[in-house]
Amino acid sequence: MNYKSNKFSTDNPTNILLTKFLKINWVIVLCVVFLGFIGVAALYSAAGGNWNPWAKSHLTRLIIGVVLMFIITFIHPKFFYKLTLISFLLGLLSLVFVKFFGVGSVQRWITIGGLNVQPSELMKFALILMLARYFDQLSKINFNRLFSYVIPILYIIIPGLIVISQPDLGTGLTIIILGFAILFYVGVSLKFVFIFLLTFISSVPIIWQQLYDYQKNRILVFLNPEIDSLGSGYQIIQSKIAIGSGGLFGKGYLLGSQSRLNYLPEKHTDFIFTLISEELGFFGAMTIILIFCLLITSIVKISFTVDTLFSKVIVFGVGLLIFLYLTLNIGMVCGLLPVVGAPLPLISYGGTSLFTILISVGVVLSINVHKNEA
Amino acid sequence: MKNNNQKILEQTLTRRFFFLSFLKTLVVGSISWRFFDLQIVENQKYKKLSNQNQFNYFIIPPERGRILDRKMRLLAGNMDSFSLVLNWSESVDVKALIYKISQIIYIDKKDLDRFYSSLHEKKNNNPKEILITRNLSQRDIAKLAVRNVEFPEITFSMSKKRVYPQGKIVGHITGYTGVFSKLDKLDGKVVAVPGLDVGKRGLEKFFDTELRGKFGRKRNEVTSRGHVIDTQIYEKTSSGEDIQVSLDMSLQAFAMQRLEMGNYNLTSIQNKGIKNQIKFNENISYINNNFVYTNQANKIVNPHSGSVIVMDVENGQLLCCVSSPGFNPNMFSNGLSDNEWSVLKNNTRSPLLNRSMSGVYPPGSTIKMAVALAALESGIINYKTKFSCTGVKEFGTSNFHCWAKNGHGSLNLMQAIEQSCDVFFYELGLKVGIDKIAVMMKKLGLGQYYNIETDEKTKGVVPNIKWKLQRDGVNWTYGETLNASIGQGYILTTPLQLVTMVSRIANSKYAINPSLIKNNNNKEFNNLDINQEHLNFIKKSMEEVVLGKKGTAKKYKIGSKKVEMAGKTGTVQVVRITEEEREKGLIKNEDRPWKKRDHALFVGYAPISKPKYAISVVVEHGGSGSSVAAPIARDVFKNLFKI
């Protein structure tokens, strides 16, 4: 069963729109919008109680992004299926392009019409689409043959390695973990799972050698932040101080001394959750984590109600993507993971990750809306 | 078949879904646990660290108490002073900043030197406040404030600067304060307080705790780059206590000037002969900028150095305590440069030495009252016992001379004191023995520390047989007794001890101890424990020194009906005179090099009817006690009694 056999409905357009509108999963929408507004509020605080330079622009992007999300919601998933290959190829192309014509000291961004775009973020969703498309014909794939894994692994490894070489270890690893988790989800035989794991563990020394000095340093500092308490360990030490000093209910909105006095690095991007934890405390931090959990659960739950594997993989993949964003970021700010540069979805300042999430959620909503139209 | 496959697939997906969800739950769970640990369990620790980030804590120095004289004249006080402080952080280009500031205001070189040395002293690269200068004027402030925008890194602060309006006349007594250094301890522990002055010498040091007052505390809220954005005072300061000393500054000033002048003449520098001398001489001490001291030969001379102390014989309070040359304590509160320090340190007249309390001199003939009292108390002689003086006492292989070459003839004790006959006291010393003399000297306050309000004290030396044996391992000789009987040889006293000795004799009842503080009436003194009659006889003899026809100080009577003084002169030989020199004829004191001239001493009290004040005058290498020291004592008494 696949979308090639689907037909468009012939009902009257207004009726269709209304039906679709009623079928939208409003829990997901509410979670997304709520988290987006948390982001606006946090960025307002990060600027010392100022709409500029981040909060206003985040709000604008949020509004545009949510509108885009709704537009996507009304588009039939069949359309995404058709776009899969081209979007993946475009993603790869822009990654290569960024490698040679990128902006900044590390090549992560390209400029399109005055906007800085980070193709590696978009690549995550393109990969989900690509893998979903590949496994759509799962019945034809024999998981007991090693050859069956070559193509999906290439889908994963090629963008992953390009991103790592940018160098952006965090995003690259996210792509690779995301890809392999999807492989695992669709039913890779356990034999091969163990083979992969063994290969990965034995290749750790080789990967270590390929890393840039600053990346090695970050991992070493992660293992013991005190070795460089004024350099790269500084971020994590100050972040822990900020989180820890927040206590149960925090220091109060706009009153976080660590962020207000500039002890927090990158407080508007990667360390935004530190600011929230400092100002709103354990209570606030847990509330936000719970809302994320609600969002992720609501998304992945859809996978049980859809028929096509294409849809299942996308829904599961998007849930996983948000989960990975969340845990990498929060694990990093509290010192459980090395500082790898991962934004907090919907809250961190940065257009590309925001749009990636909103588009992904839009596609998930679309799949949910259109699920019984086969 | 297809349906079956589909079913298996669905099962796999569901199993894998739940397995991955389980993993996700574990991850979220461990992150939540981590936040619980950081925010709830270790909250206090991180709160403290965050607090340390947010605030820099400071101690606010309180306003230091004043030092006042007995008539409430200010000896040490505080003046507003404006400081320029650099909020240093790594990003500050110090050189360029200092250059820009010095284009606008003048910064003293020694301030700059100190600034750079404290800049280089810093241990780490954390931002901190470094003092640039404490000597800004109102004008400087105005000039800088106008261009404040250009220098966000500098701030002004108003602080207090210690001032000593009396200058050098009382520098040794007040002492001075200095910036707290690591060597100093406050209440047993070392704390760093920017701009805190602590007493380094004299009363400032002795009463440091009382003068200092209570610290306040403040905290500055600072950004990670060290910019101060807020200041909160959460503990107020309380000022230190004022200290009232017993000194009378008008007497002190007069005594200082009188001592330095001695018998010299005050000559204007407009004088022709003087102008020529100034051309060829670099180190001239000017008096009030327009005068110099000259001797009989009209040569420019240095002011006399020495000590004048006046003490109340009833309560031991010092009314004047002069040590010359003095130093100006204001030099220290302005920040002493290395150059100024080395000038003070290398001055051959040692201006930093407090001669009154730490200078030791052989007492010379001023000791004769003690020797006489020892003899009277031991009953060896009575008032009528006579000895004959031929000008020399032959003893063993040596000759011991009297200052009067031809001798005094036969005289009794009172006459011997009046004329200061040395041979009489040689005989007396031999009869009494050094140990009994030493006991009497100690009774009169020599050879000991007093409980006086200063750290600068010297014990001096009161020798006896045991002391010699312990120090040199050699037996005491009678020749040494002869020397000690006229206050030469081993015996050393401070001017403070001499005035205390006279005070005790004048008081006759109590063993008075000296004090610099006015309100110490509750101080109790021990009984002197010397026969009253003997003391009266000694006092009568001291009166004769001034009033008698042959008295050594007869030229220097006060001459008032109400007040007259009694006393004793002393001329201390500094170098040994050989027999050959004596035969050739003594070289006149003024013709010897300064260092080899005699010390001139005078001790005394007034009024004779009812003793109230005691005095000791020491003029270093000043000549004879009767011609140099006695007139100084007379004039100081005249000033004191307003005659």
Question: How would you describe this structure to a colleague?
Answer:
The complex is a heterodimer of chains A (374) and B (643). A two-stranded antiparallel ribbon of chain A has the order 1-2. The longest helix of chain A is centred in the last third of the chain and has 30 residues, at 272-301. In chain A, a hairpin with a 2-residue loop joins β1 and β2. Chain A has one domain (3-369). Chain A is mainly α. In chain A, 49% of the residues are buried. Chain A is built from 15 helices and two strands. Chain B has four domains: 2-41; 56-169 and 215-244, Penicillin-binding protein 2a (Domain 2) (Alpha-Beta Complex); 249-301, no CATH class; 306-640, 3-Layer(aba) Sandwich (Beta-lactamase), CATH 3.40.710. Chain B is 38% helix and 20% strand. Chain B contains 23 helices and 24 strands. In chain B, strands 2, 3, 4, 5 and 10 form a five-stranded mixed beta sheet that branches. In chain B, a hairpin with a 5-residue loop joins β14 and β15 (318-324). The longest helix of chain B is centred in the first third of the chain and has 40 residues, at 2-41. At the A-B interface, α7, α11, α13 and α14 of A face α1 and α2 of B.
**Beta-strand fraction estimate of chain B:** 15-25%
Q: What count of domains describes the coordinates of chain B?
A: 4
CATH T-level fold name of the largest domain in chain B? Beta-lactamase
* Subunit arrangement of the protein: heterodimer
Spatial separation of the terminal alpha carbons of chain A: 10 Å
What integer value in Å does the Rg of chain A equal? 21 Å
The shape of chain B, in one word, is: elongated
Strand order in the sheet with the most strands of chain A = 1-2
Mind sketching the topology for me?
The complex is a heterodimer of chains A (374) and B (643).
Chain A (H helix, E strand, L loop, with lengths): L12 H11 L2 H21 L8 H19 L3 H25 L8 E3 L2 E3 L1 H17 L11 H18 L4 H17 L4 H13 L1 H7 L2 H11 L8 H15 L10 H4 L11 H30 L7 H25 L17 H19 L5
Antiparallel strand pairs in A: 1-2
Helix pairs in contact in A: 2-3, 2-13, 3-15, 4-5, 4-6, 5-6, 5-7, 5-14, 5-15, 6-7, 7-14, 11-13, 13-14, 14-15
Chain B lengths: L1 H40 L1 H12 E6 L6 E2 L5 E15 L5 H11 L4 H13 L6 E9 L1 H9 L7 E10 L7 H4 L2 E3 L17 E3 L2 H5 L1 H5 L3 E7 L5 E8 L7 E2 L4 H13 L3 E4 L3 H9 L10 E4 L5 E2 L4 E7 L5 E7 L5 H4 L4 H9 L8 H4 L9 H10 L8 E4 L2 E4 L2 E4 L7 E4 H7 L2 H11 L1 H10 L21 H8 L5 H8 L9 H13 L2 E2 L14 E2 L4 H16 L18 E7 L6 H6 L14 E8 L6 E7 L5 H16 L3
Parallel strand pairs in B: 2-10
Antiparallel strand pairs in B: 1-8, 2-3, 3-4, 3-5, 6-7, 8-9, 11-12, 12-13, 14-15, 14-24, 16-19, 17-18, 20-21, 22-23, 23-24
